[in-house]
Amino acid sequence: MAGFHDGVTIAWLGVLLLAVAHETDASEIVVPRGSGMTIVIKQKTPAVAGRPCYLITSRRQMTVLLLKPGDKASISFTCVDPERHFVLEIQKNIDCMSGPCPFGEVLLQPSTSELPRLNRTFIWDVKAHKSIGLELQFSIPRLRQIGPGEKCQDDVSYAISGRIDATEVRIGTFCSNGTVSRIKMQEGVKVALHLPWFLSRNTSGFSIANRSSIKRLCIIESVFEGEGSATLMSANYPEAFPEDELMTWQFVIPAPLRASVSFLNFSVSNCERKEERVEYYIPGSTTNPEVFKLGDKQPGNMAGNFNLSLQGCDQDAQSPGILRLQFQVLVQHPQNESNKTYVIDLRQERTMSLTIEPRHVKHGRKFVPGCFVCLESRTCSTNITLMAGSKHTISFLCDDLTRLWVNAEKTISCLDHRYCHKRPYSLRVPGHILQLPVELHDFSWKLVVPKDQFSLVLVPAPKLQQHTQERPCNTSFSYLVGSGMAGHDFGYFCPGGSIEQIRVKENSSVTLRTFTSGFLQDVANQSLTVSFIPNFKEEGIFTVTPDRASKVYLRTPNWDRGMPALSSVSWNISVPGEQEAYLAFHRERSGVVCQSGRAFMIIQEQKSRAEEIFSLEEDGLPKSRRYRDSFWVNISNCSPVSSKQLNLLFWVTLTPRSADLSVVLIAVAGGGLVLLIVLLLVICLVKKKKKKTSKGPAVGIYNGNINTQMPRQPRKFPKGRADNDSHVYAVIDDCMVYGHLLQEGSNGSSLRPEVDTYRPFQGPMGDCPPSPPPIGSQISTRKLSSHEAPPCSPPESESEPYTFSHPHPRDGSHRDTEIPLLETPQPVEAAE
Predict the structure, then answer these.
(1) Could you tell me if 163 and 90 are in contact, meaning their C-beta atoms sit under 8 angstroms apart?
(2) How far is Cα of residue 372 from the mean position of the Cα atoms in its chain?
(3) Going edge to edge, which strands form the sheet with 649-656?
(4) Could you tell me if 506 and 449 are in contact, meaning their C-beta atoms sit under 8 angstroms apart?
(5) What is the pTM of this model?
(6) Burial call 607-621: b when 16+ CB within 10 Å, e when fewer
(7) Under a CB-based contact definition with an 8 Å cutoff, are residues 228 and 333 in contact?
(8) How many C-beta atoms surround the C-beta of residue 447 within 10 A?
């Protein structure tokens, strides 16, 4: 038992020795009398998680220690890392209203060597009269302002505040290595210097000077010695700038450099009186101060020193709003483009806008000169938008113009159908855009049509190729064709293909997008016209004439995202004579799964009108097959499951047409018939020659006992005897047959007049795609050789149906004896 107690005692002694060992060395702090200084040691907020740490003084554990002038204390801590748990604040109050101010360099008291190794904050709170201006002068390196949430790289920062009556106004937080050299304030100033626990420093880095009244909240001076940039913020940023106050920034710019201002972030308040604005004092300007609204493009390309002031207003007490400003000043050498101007004349345009903006380029340099676009060489911005109806003169302040690009947009709409119907509109980039030294990125045409009245047809010159992975576009530009449906695009198209037309059902957009600087050399190939045509049902119709030398790849709209639900697209594929087309699909099945409705594909030959229907959800895609004549491919989508979309890729290849056995047989039969006719002509000519050698004239002998009625045979000529010259004889010999003897039958009956009726061609003309089955149709089998009328009839021929007729003879002297050879009436039974 005694051993147990001895063990417990030894354990407690070990704990105490460990606790003593963890205590830090004691530090003695003395606060001189009459110094106006207080020292506070307190725990961090929020407290550090883990084992607690306490401050020990006079053998007491404490979390907060306050020392006033004349106090003295020896302190230590119960942990080995007190810098993680405690902070030290030394505040000195300076009253310049009751006595002289201690102007000059500000010292650190007490010295950092006399203080515990904690994160320290030295605070100087100077109170002055409203008419007295105080100036903080910072030694090199100068200060750089940082925004909320940012930290200084060396953990050394200045927090500077001013005062308006009893209200403290935060001017900003600053790090080292910047451009801010002086800050002037009125009615007092408060400076808080934050130093990390590991840094031994005995200077504050600034001094205080007496200045006359500045009659504003503060003035911040920013000095540039070379190229660089500075980001600055309004007082209390990102909170509200004080009501009806004035704040000024003074910028010192070396003679060979130029400065440009751009607003990064700002908001305005609700003003009852006056107006919020910024004012510039620019060297050489005849209109100083130059006044701008916060939303205006700010001045740029400025040479020499200039001032920028922010003026507040009297705010609405019920809804004051927030006035705040964050801006950047960029200083750089003038560029070669600075003195060049470019004119963009949009006075004749109504619906066009042009934007010059930065492109997304990563830079590895520490300082990157800015790229600015300047209006009239003074109002500069990183991006600028020019609207229609005006003439604009611009210049550039940029070291590398490839960092900028141009995006433009124009709207073409049909407001009066009588005016725009079938009128072509050229989609070409205007010349004044191409003459800019900045690359064109996008030029978009918004094409607007009256709903359910008109559609659009795009006609390129030369023909277009659809961009696919199997055959990508390698040109310097391409067209992105989109539909009015949300997220619906037909794809990218570039010159050098087989697509002759693209018909779009409704509002659409065409975006010319460039990819290389070679676009200026290829601009001659940029030719595309759009016309308004009567409305049709499909979302799109492509007219394709395949190239004989290569495959034509085609794919459904919205590739990789899925063809839009309940939409239909058709391809009109022409097959030239002496050629045949092979149609093949990339996959064996479509992969679509319908949530509602049915997905179909229809392939229809335009000449024979043979039609095949495939259910894309149930049937496999067609195998490779050949077509001798032009044909349609129509794809109609259902409402698919999100993960089972409809994406189809197919291609068409032309090859020389192979000989058909039926054609060969017809040709052989036709050749034999021709040979037979030649032999008969030879026989007739020989007999005719014999007749001519006789002395008497040629005589025809009539025998009335012979039956002159010949069996009726099918007609061999489409025309009647009255329409050809086969009944005109130069010589009548025994090779001829007297036609008038065939006019009368054995019973005296006569022939009825022949009647032929001509009708216009009603076959498929290639203008209308096959009509897809209804969305809810349950057809899942193939349908071959349908002879029903196409969904939309072709245009009616100008020639009307008309009739050829042989009239009945009115009397014996005018009887029609011109009956076609070998064509006799059917026998008529004799009357009783």
Answers:
(1) no
(2) 23
(3) 552-555, 649-656, 579-585, 625-627
(4) yes
(5) 0.60
(6) eebbbbbbbbbebeb
(7) no
(8) 25
User: Which residues touch 162 (CB under 8 Å, ≥6 apart)?
Assistant: 168, 169, 171, 185, 186, 187, 188, 189, 190, 217, 218, 235
Specify the pLDDT at position 515: 86
Q: Give the pLDDT confidence of 230-267 residue by residue, as tens digits.
A: 999 999 999 999 999 999 999 999 988 889 898 999 99
Q: Where are the beta strands (DSSP E) in 731-801?
A: 755-758
> What pLDDT digit, counting tens, does each position of 548-584 carry?
878 999 999 998 889 999 999 999 999 988 899 999 9
Characterize the bridge pairing of strands 568-573 and 540-544.
parallel
Q: What single letter denotes the amino acid at residue 344? A: I
Cis omega (within 30 of 0) for bond into 254: no
Chain position carrying tokens 């009109």? 572
Of 211, 203, 206, the closest CA to residue 190 belongs to 206
- For residue 811 the two structure tokens come to 């009397």
pLDDT of residue 609: 84
pLDDT digits (tens, 9 = 90+) for 209-223: 988 889 999 999 999
CB-neighbour burial class of residue 496 (10 A; exposed 0-12, middle 13-18, buried 19+): middle
Q: Which two tokens stand for residue 337?
A: 């483009």
- The pLDDT assigned to 722 comes to 46
506: left (phi over 0), alpha (psi -120 to 50) or beta: beta
Q: Which amino acid is present at 382? A: T
Asked if residue 83 lies in contact with residue 197, where contact means CB atoms within 8 angstroms, the answer is: yes
Task: Say how far apart CA 117 and CA 198 lie, in whole Å.
Answer: 7
* 635: amino acid identity, one letter: I
Q: Residue 747's pLDDT band (boundaries 50, 70, 90)?
A: very low
Contact by Cβ (8 Å): 647, 560:
yes
**Helix, strand, or coil (residue 70):** coil
- Rounded CA-CA distance 213/81 in Å is 48
Give me Rg for the CA atoms of the chain: 49
- pLDDT at residue number 367: 65
690-714 burial by CB neighbour count: b if 16+ within 10 A, else e?
A: eeeeeeeeeeeeeeeeeebeeeeee
Asked if the model's pLDDT at residue 778 lies above 50, the reply is: no
pLDDT digits (tens, 9 = 90+) for 393-410: 998 888 788 889 999 999
Structure tokens belonging to residue 387: 């609207």
Whether residue 344 is predicted with pLDDT greater than 50 in this model: the reply is yes
What distance separates the 2 farthest-apart alpha carbons in the chain?
A: 175
Q: Give backbone dihedrals phi and psi of 610, rounded to 5 degrees, phi first.
A: -70, 135
Residue 412 has a CB neighbour count (10 Å cut-off) of 17
* CA gap 401, 423 in Å, rounded: 39
Residue of 435, 354, 358, 342 whose CA lies nearest to 394: 342
Asked if residue 379 lies in contact with residue 393, where contact means CB atoms within 8 angstroms, the answer is no
Which residue stretches of 610-731 are H helix?
A: 661-693
Q: Which of 490, 501, 458, 496 is nearest to 477 (CA)?
A: 496
- Contact present, 55 and 61 (Cβ < 8 Å): yes
Q: Please report, to the nearest 10 degrees, the dihedral formed by the alpha carbons of residues 620, 623, 629, 635 taken in order.
A: 30
Q: What pLDDT score was predicted for residue 255? A: 86
Burial status of residue 551 (CB atoms within 10 A of its CB: 0-12, 13-18, 19 or more) = middle
List strand residue ranges (DSSP E) for 253-370, in order: 258-269, 271-273, 277-281, 290-292, 302-303, 306-311, 314-315, 321-332, 342-345, 352-358
pLDDT of residue 775: 54
The residues, ordered by sequence, that sit 6+ positions from 725 with a Cβ below 8 Å of its Cβ are none
The CA distances from residue 521 to 209, 513, 517, in Å, are 65, 15, 8
**Residue-level length of the chain:** 832
